């Protein structure tokens, strides 16, 4: 049964712009019916450390923790989300609130939309977490 839609954007680690390799290390999920923005990330960055031993893991973890905290803060102000009417505005919001668009190692992917099969946000976020970050465990 369709319970509405939600959008999500992957946070990607680009170790080298020249190589073009990308690892997904985080995920922003926005649930418009609930005015909720969630940030998910793996507790351990094992895949990242295996692929790029010189990656600044401690710095990356501090960014990830900050993004999680900031998403929670923004959810306490639901009116901040009332203007989202397209994928582009969500991406603009994420660039403004979390990560400017530039050529650093952390970059946002494209916005993807999905149909919600439940109103249980924990169930949806758990499924997204396991889909994208199971390999980090």
Summarize the structure.
It is built from four helices and four strands.
Report on this model:
- This protein has 137 residues and is α+β, with helices and mostly antiparallel strands.
- It has one domain (5-136).
- The protein is built from four helices and four strands; from the N terminus they run βββαααβα.
- It has helices spanning 46-51, 57-75, 87-97, 121-133; strands at residues 5-13, 23-31, 36-40, 106-115.
- A four-stranded antiparallel β-sheet has the order 3-2-1-4, with helices on both faces.
Structure keywords:
137 residues, alpha+beta, four-stranded antiparallel sheet
In helices, the fraction of residues equals 25-40%
Largest sheet: 4 strands, antiparallel
Number of domains: 1
Low-confidence stretches: none
Element string (H = helix, E = strand): EEEHHHEH
The averaged pLDDT comes out at 87
How many DSSP-defined strands?
4
Name the strands of the widest sheet in spatial order. 3-2-1-4
The shape is globular
Structural class: alpha+beta
Q: What secondary-structure arrangement, pairings included, does this model have?
A:
Layout: E1 5-13, E2 23-31, E3 36-40, H1 46-51, H2 57-75, H3 87-97, E4 106-115, H4 121-133
Antiparallel strand pairs: 1-2, 1-4, 2-3
